[in-house]
Write the structure tokens for this entry.
Amino acid sequence: MLEFKKGVDILSAVGGIMTIGEARNLFEQQLDSEHLGRLALITNEEALLKVANAIAMCAPDRVYVHTGSEEDCAIVRRMSLEKGEEKKLAMTGHTIHFDLPEDQGRMVDQTFYIYNEDEQVSSLAKKEPRDQSHAYVREHMRGIMQGKTMFVGFYSRGPVGAKASIPAIEISSSTYVMHSAELLYRNCFADFDAEVARRGEFFTNVHSEGPNRSEDVPKARIYMDRSWQTTFSTFCTYAGNTLLMKKGNHRFASDCAMYKHHGEELSEHMFITGMTGPDGRKTYFAGAAPSGCGKTTTAMVGSDFVGDDLAQMWIEQDGTLRAVNPEIGIFGIIEDVNLEGDPYLMKCLRQPGAEVIFSNVLVDEHGKPRWTGDGDPLPEKGVNYQGQWTKEMTGVPLSHPNSRCTLKAEAVGNHNKAVNADPNGIVIKVITYSGRDSNTMPPIWVAKSMDAGVAIGASIVSKATAAEIGASGVNRQPWANTPFVAGSMTDYLDAQLNFYGNEKMTRKPVLAGLNYFLTHEARGGNGKGLLGEKKDVHVWLGWLELYTHGDVQAIETPIGMIPKYEDLEKLFNEKINKEYPESLYTMQFSLYIDNVVARIDLQEAAWRKEQGVSGRLFAVYEEQKAGLLALKAAKGAIVKPQELR
Ligand code: OXD
Ligand code: MN
């Protein structure tokens, strides 16, 4: 369990402001009349105390209340250029931001949940006792904004008024962070009080880059104070470490789903996208994948792209599963984004019209941003996050593999802005789970029950990517959400089982596994590398769309339902005008029983190490394993899909 408002509230203990009277006095002293007037429009006392304590702790020279107006946005953009946090690129509206070379991804070893004694924290998470984090904040955050302007913005993580939207305050001395916040989140200055009253809670985030020097990065910290729903971030700028409205608050939202709205809400690391089916019907998907595994590309394959990273879900009165996207923008990995795989995104990145912050790419001598896999010939030279780069520097990548682009989703041609703004949420009919799995699971398989679907999510394994500094190897990534779940894995599993199993959810979604990472090497192919192409995703999602509506039949296997060759062949032709040989289908969809069983054994062993894990998960594993072993006895270790019809 997690108890909220327990233990020392570090922000107020370090800030020292205890009453609303003291807070108001501080505002009078520190804010100029314009910003004092703005803050006067916020009346929630708890929120005002948070802001006052952040000011008292960080001691900025000036406080700027960001209302989200066009004028405020323009001021932040201009200041960012003046400060040098961003630089102009050749194309109007495009800028480049560099993070320090040591700060190119989420710093997992410097990211901690602050915990109270006797609180359960996930076995996959890093934690620090409250008094230690308190001492750090006291030592390093007092006066950290001296000589700087503190920006304070009020946002909504989701459309204002939606059941699962949660308001949040973002406080930062970085104009890059605030510029990104405006591209990625809904500024809800005017609605903030009402939203806090409706939801009964809000999150607070306090960040400062300090002097922004490499030598300070070892002392950088990213803290999540779960009890007080407050984050602290220091001595870094990479948005995954600093714009904590994103992953910091996603972690708090996961706590809310698990402990405040158990079985009624989920907070997922998922894209949301719509597919258009026969007769123009729209079917919305939400899909989980670990960071750096193609969530953005998959999301943009939809005809009605909504979001690429996060989903706040709930069960609506009518029995449907609804979701909102807490974001309105994209902080997407840019490596391998090119015209062929990502035409909509490329238009924003290569043509004028969109406001884009590029980070950690290379800027060539003409002010053009360049990245690995962008589809253009290598430039002669340029500047990247490490300094000067020339073509001769073989082995030194053009851009960092975790370099990013930040832009509003509405700039992307197939984004459905109205759907992303709807406080009623989006009815989700299909949920997918994927990871980087080179040798075991087929491209698509559909769970035969809700519990089996939960087991797909519980069993994601994936190869580490550049989004996390220092990560390596193939790791368990349950629901692709473990980096962001603080509570115990057992509690998280229960929250999943009780959500999908909730009898109020009368219109259950289809739950499916997706895997685009099978290789020739693992499947006896005669090529090299991936068996499929990025664009095949159109077909995998297209088949799921048809299956959800009962328009195609599937083949039953012990792990779930898989597509028939003829349906896929037709879809390959219709959707991407590509031939799909049956030999490829056979390689992709054959059951490599020993691999699948080994995977189940690994998962089972890992889950058995946790305490109190629901027997429902083990029942799914046992049933699948028994089915697979019986099949092996009957047909051998590699079973072709044609043998199962
Ligand atoms: C992200 C991540 O930036 O998951 O979305 O790292
Ligand atoms: Mn993510």
Notes: The two ends are 47 Å apart (CA to CA). DSSP finds 21 helices and 33 strands in the chain. The domain at 265-329+417-644 is CATH 3.90.228.20 (Phosphoenolpyruvate Carboxykinase; domain 3). The chain has three domains: 10-83+105-260, 265-329+417-644, 331-411.
